[in-house]
């Protein structure tokens, strides 16, 4: 692996333990101004001290994040779809590699929609990004999207998606936690981080999700709604950090939520 690629990855996955707490705030690219992310600046600012990297679009980066920030970010470079459009899976690259480099991204992110009518389109785009990423030393985070069908989140389906993403060259894969998650981890030769998905009933449920994922071999989280839709968002991200970086149990981590 070339120096630039290695350096970018080490900014994202802290060398002391190789783990990562990334804050996902890219949802607006297809969901619009969802609850608690109507004003990204206000959502992001208090969480920054506890975040290893932000995941966001260029629009939110340019307009809602101060350029003096000393934090890496993962740039979502795909879109073209919306929650009310005819096909959520109809996503392609909208931000090119030159722009990612200009903005000083530490990685680019793209969603793949395996098993949908746009499977080939999204996998081909992933391959294109990986080719460009290799050329410029830019890691690619593949996101295994499930669209509106959340019930698709089982180990067979996610294992298939993660393996395909890794086979096509993604350096890191983001997926969902599921039963038998260790099987998904074992069959994916690159690091996996988990998304949180829609807000769970309680903070404890979200901590348990992160804890179980780490125990099963995840390298961290790229979490959004279960952090910033919580009324105790700062406590939540501190608790998630304790699980990911300090090996805390759910009960120990929960002490951060005040
Ligand atoms: C999809 O909406 C985005 O890629 C999010 O970054 C991803 O789903 C993680 O956010 P959350 O934890 O809210 O699911």
Write the layout of secondary structure elements.
Elements: H1 3-12, E1 20-24, H2 28-31, H3 40-44, E2 53-56, H4 58-64, E3 73-76, E4 78-79, E5 92-93, H5 97-102, E6 107-112, H6 119-136, E7 140-144, H7 155-167, E8 172-175, H8 181-186, E9 192-194, H9 203-215, E10 220-223, H10 225-228, H11 233-246, H12 250-254
Parallel strand pairs: 1-2, 1-10, 2-3, 3-6, 6-7, 7-8, 8-9
Antiparallel strand pairs: 4-5
Helix pairs in contact: 9-11
The structure holds ribose-5-phosphate (R5P).
Written overview of the protein:
The chain has one domain: TIM Barrel (Alpha-Beta Barrel). The chain is of the alpha/beta class. The protein has helices at 3-12, 28-31, 40-44, 58-64, 97-102, 119-136, 155-167, 181-186, 203-215, 225-228, 233-246, 250-254; strands spanning 20-24, 53-56, 73-76, 78-79, 92-93, 107-112, 140-144, 172-175, 192-194, 220-223. The mean pLDDT is 96. α9 runs parallel beside α11 (233-246). The N and C termini lie far apart (43 Å). α6 (119-136) links the parallel β6 and β7 (140-144). Helix content is 41%, strand content 15%. The strands form two sheets. Strands 9-8-7-6-3-2-1-10 form an eight-stranded parallel sheet. A two-stranded antiparallel sheet has the order 4-5. The structure holds ribose-5-phosphate. Ribose-5-phosphate is lined by residues 24, 26-27, 55, 143, 195-197, 222-226.
